[in-house]
Each structure stands twice: as C-alpha cells, then as structure tokens.
Specification:
Blueprint (H helix, E strand, L loop, with lengths): L13 H18 L2 H16 L10 H15 L13 H8 L3 H14 L12 H4 L7 E4 L2 E4 L5 H9 L12 H7 L1
Antiparallel strand pairs: 1-2
Helix pairs in contact: 1-2, 1-3, 2-3, 3-4, 3-5, 4-5
C-alpha cells in the first residue's frame, strides 16, 4: 500500500493537528531527532484524514505518545543497539500515560496506518538504504533485491509504492576514484 506523505487535513482538524505536532516536535527535539519528528507529522496528518479518525477519542498527550510509540516500534526505538534509543516506558512516562495505554493506542495507530516493521513508508529515512527488507520485491515469482534491478524497473516499483526510491548503484569507476 502506498502512503502519501501529506500534511493536508480537513479544516476542522487543523487545530488538533497543530496541537499534536507541537507535542511530538517538542519531544523529538528534546529526546529523538528530526526524522522522528517528520514521520510523526505525517502520521498525525494521516490519522486526521481517517474517516472516522481515531483521534476523536482521548487526550492529545495520549495520541502524541501513541504516534511516537508506533513509529518507535517500526524503527526499533527500544533496541539499545540503535540510535536514538529510548525505552517505551520512558516515552510513555514523558507524556504522563501508562505504558499499557501507550501500547494499546500505538496498536490502533499501526493498524489505522498499516504500519509494520521494515515498512519503507514509516522507516526513518537514514535507515532506508541499509534496510534490506525494504528493497525485496517479487519479480516474475522470484524475490529480488530491487537495488539490483535496472533503473527503469526501479522507477516502476517506486510508482507502485513497492520501494522507497530509485537506488542508483555506484559504478566501478566511481569506486576506483574514491579509493
């Protein structure tokens, strides 16, 4: 499924959108990074466009936490070997909600936005190129790494939402000049 990165929302959602973005941006500025902030903005806008929106029930802090929690699950935020790292309980604590509430609302966010781990639509941009699973697609019944396909085939895959972007390999002459 292709996810459009858009900030467009119905007029009635502009206020709640701004309030939620202020919460997530503040948290990301202090504890995470600009990539999480950007993905959170897109996720919140997408939730505002849902009919009916799950954001109609609950507090802003709860939904801000849930969006970041969901993005954290997709991007392994609670894995100590990744940067940035944060325990989900600490994330929930910052927003003043119980970890069980954060987890339950994050599940609603993931379901509403069809989020899953290694989903190129919700993976941090800095991790896309090295995320092998984001590049695996089926071509004529075979699973292939799309980075190995000709550029024209990659362009079609991007249009279909199968891969995040056209990956251009470095030619051997470019590699030799870098050495």
């Amino acid at each position: 499924m292709t996810t459009t990165k858009s900030m467009k929302v119905p007029k009635c959602w502009e206020g709640p959108l701004a309030a939620l973005i202020a919460l997530t941006d503040g948290f990301c500025d202090e504890h995470l990074d600009h990539e999480y902030a950007e993905l959170a903005r897109y996720a919140i806008a997408a939730l505002c466009r849902k009919r009916p929106s799950p954001l109609t029930n609950g507090h802003s802090q709860t939904w801000a936490c849930a969006v970041l929690y969901a993005l954290g699950q997709v991007n392994f935020l609670s894995d100590r070997s990744t940067a940035p790292y944060m325990a989900m309980a600490d994330l929930c604590g910052y927003f003043g909600i119980a970890p069980s509430t954060g987890g339950n609302k994050a599940k609603l966010v993931r379901t509403a936005l069809s989020m899953h781990q290694f989903d190129h639509n919700w993976t941090l941009p800095s991790r896309l190129e090295s995320s092998s699973l984001s590049w695996l697609i089926e071509v004529d019944g075979l699973i292939v790494d799309a980075r190995q396909l000709p550029v024209d085939m990659q362009e079609v895959a991007v249009q279909k939402g199968l891969i995040p972007f056209v990956y251009k390999r470095i030619s051997e002459t470019q590699i030799e000049t870098k050495l």
